């Protein structure tokens, strides 16, 4: 009896080992559903997806359905797909137009659903410069994946045409069957299950990377209007920090606004080490000027370094210049509004002490030397133009109106402003009051 019991134990152990081995070596596939506009949110989603695929050493299936979107984000996503070491299969279901077509061309494999279409990528505005740039981007992407660059270029530039699918003067757009006949798509699949079976991934564990709240936040942070507001907040806060002795809340607010900008760019795979170094260096220079009271040129250099860092952080394009210029204009408007209305508002009166401690109320902030006006004395030291003089037998710190007076020269007090005793050389015959 002990032998059969031992045999069952061995059999169960082998089964458990096989199950664990199959689980450990099971194929993982990362599924990325991108449906709708190509924007910063989808760019952040793709960035996370490719990072997950590389971590899991898994291929990627990009489930694509898009009418197009923002070209800058589409090109950034295209660059990430081309640079990824993982296999990327793009499943057009049911359309990939405009910017979506660029993503479809970037994948190693292109699979289209029956009734789907791809193309129609003429940029808006359709200027000669924009068409040339986007046409080159499409052609280069197709060449990288061993597809026809002429076909890809015809999706952008209607003057080219691509017979027999599009005559010159017509933008190229292909159906699923036309894409296969033209050598653009490898195969067709009615659903995701069919696609996975085609590649032998029917038993794979799907890791779906759906949009998250962080992607939505990145979408907001990538809005040019919000970026203009954040940059204005940075400039206003830095100005408040510079004008305030020591460290105030302005520096903290500027840091938070900069961190939000950097977070948004980092999430879409557009971080810049040089931009971070320039921003950090600019802030350190400004802080050095604040705490050590250096020249204004030091602060100007720090601000210039921060602006350069922001330019690189936002992509280093003409759009970045427009955003920074908009932030500067908005910050100037805020400065003007604060200078004109802040000190007269009800909130300011609540936050500040309205009671005055002036001379009319019997207060003095220093010694009153007005009684010396018209009194005569003699210089105890040379006045260059400040020095010491004896007036009525007592030493006082005095100053001239710019002239130098030698020691031992008779002087007379012309006037007193605060604690400044202003004197002049006493002329012959001038009498003391």
Automatic annotation (TrEMBL):
Stored InterPro entries: ClpP/crotonase-like_dom_sf, Membrane_assoc_protease, NA-bd_OB-fold, NfeD-like_C, NfeD1b_N, NfeD_membrane
Membrane topology, as annotated: Multi-pass membrane protein
Entry GO CC: plasma membrane
GO molecular function: peptidase activity
Residue stretches making up the NfeD-like C-terminal domain: 372-423
One annotated GO biological process: proteolysis
Location(s), subcellular: Membrane
Signal peptide coordinates: 1-26
Domain NfeD integral membrane: 225-339
Regions annotated as coiled coil: none
Residue stretches spanning the membrane: 217-240, 247-266, 272-292, 297-314, 320-339
Entry annotated with the keyword Phosphoprotein: no
Name this protein carries in UniProt: Membrane-bound serine protease (ClpP class)
